[in-house]
Amino acid sequence: MTAFKQVKSLKGTVRVPSDKSISHRSFMFLSMAKGRGRIIDPLLSADTKATMAAMQAMGVTFEETVNGFVVTSQGYKDFKEPENVIDCMNSGTTARLLTGVYAPSGKYIVLTGDASLRRRPMDRVIIPLSQMGAKFAARDNGRCLPLTIMPSKLHSADIIAETKSAQVKSAILLAGVQAEGITTYTEKAVTRNHTEIMLSALGAKITTEGLKITVEGAAELNAIDIVVPGDFSSAAFFLGAALMFEGSELMLENVGLNPTRSGMLKILDDMGVKYTIENERGGAEKLGDIIISSQSFSGCTVEGDIIPNIIDELPMIATLGLFADSPVTIRNAKELRVKESDRIAATLYNLNALGAETEEYEDGMKVYPIKNINTKAALKSFEDHRIAMVAIMLAKRFGGEITVDNIECVDVSFPTFMETFKSLED
Ligand code: S3P
């Protein structure tokens, strides 16, 4: 258990870590492409290292450079059969996307993960990939890891989404780009579109019309250079921090602003929060610098089709309810219950431990402005990186004897969180 010194305000410039979703995809997609490509500024965290190791097991080479890696591959048609089980560790993105990458390979592959990942649903990729001819065996009646991919030949299919998940969409598109024929995937709501943007940059023929994405199979993927922007989901903690710690003034540099990821900015607009974006740049993946200061703000109701665009930011957004003039309500977010932890239960456990007034719903939560703080609260990370970071911020905000357990899990997405936060403490 770790205790923290109370922090008054945060000031300065933050360069957040590189985007986790784009880093995973860079490692995977350049491995699927033939030739030598470069990844510049990838995130090297526990999660993305799991993806890199998985691709090395398929015979792909990664050479370290000053700012990233050179990836050399024979392409997906010449993947080797891994000699051992692939450990996806804590990473749902690794497990779900790799299932799509590997299913058409005609190889025998076994995927597993840590205790948290072994509890998370895999049937969401197993069922639609099976409609494309993939063959799997998986624990718990075909629902969970460990999962075995059996050699089989995939064909194209028209898949209709059952969940609002970019991981599931990506798994289908990654299988579809390899299988013969034209595959379509129709989403239930727009989810993050990094896979579509990146596959197109590698030369795949992929188009989006409303909620329907179409990809041509048996594609030649060409190695390219990919520059990874800063992670909006990591920046979100500092957007939240500026609103939690009075007297703060922060500039967040080089943050990815893809609209399918940056929905929290719309939520901040709804809360009446003022911030500015400077130096907007980039092509298909926009980026910019965000400037935000402490201010008073109101609560709001967060629901509907924006949820997939703020899914990883919801523990932070819910926590802002403590500091707002009125409650924050989150609905339609049942997906939170199957993340690295049950993020509805985990967020409410910590807020309740601090003495907050909250309400729990099957698909969300309501958090009221806090009145009396329990300065002896023992907060828990639930071994979930995003829950840990919010808990650390709360402990630093309220001080006293508040502790947080097992904070090492921040390594999953933000290995330098503690140092970065400290460098801003005024
Ligand atoms: C991710 C998609 C989201 C998100 C996860 C990363 C991705 O998961 O929560 O952290 O990189 O595609 P779902 O697709 O399951 O919602």
Automatic annotation (TrEMBL):
NCBIfam families: aroA. This is 3-phosphoshikimate 1-carboxyvinyltransferase. Belongs to the EPSP synthase family. PANTHER family: AROM/DEHYDROQUINATE SYNTHASE (PTHR21090), PENTAFUNCTIONAL AROM POLYPEPTIDE (PTHR21090:SF5). 3-phosphoshikimate binds at K20, S21, R25, S165, Q167, D312, K339. GO terms for biological process: amino acid biosynthetic process; aromatic amino acid family biosynthetic process; chorismate biosynthetic process. The active site is at D312 (proton acceptor). Catalyzes the transfer of the enolpyruvyl moiety of phosphoenolpyruvate (PEP) to the 5-hydroxyl of shikimate-3-phosphate (S3P) to produce enolpyruvyl shikimate-3-phosphate and inorganic phosphate. One of its GO terms (cellular component) is cytoplasm. The gene is aroA. Pathway: Metabolic intermediate biosynthesis; chorismate biosynthesis; chorismate from D-erythrose 4-phosphate and phosphoenolpyruvate: step 6/7. One of its GO terms (molecular function) is 3-phosphoshikimate 1-carboxyvinyltransferase activity. Phosphoenolpyruvate binds at K20, G92, R120, Q167, R343, R386. Its EC number is 2.5.1.19. It comes from Seleniivibrio woodruffii. It is found in: Cytoplasm. Its main location: cytoplasm. InterPro entries: Enolpyruvate_Tfrase_dom, Enolpyruvate_Tfrase_sf, EPSP_synthase, EPSP_synthase_CS, RNA3'P_cycl/enolpyr_Trfase_a/b. Keywords: Amino-acid biosynthesis, Aromatic amino acid biosynthesis, Cytoplasm, Transferase. Monomer. Residues 6-420 form the Enolpyruvate transferase domain. It catalyses: 3-phosphoshikimate + phosphoenolpyruvate = 5-O-(1-carboxyvinyl)-3-phosphoshikimate + phosphate.
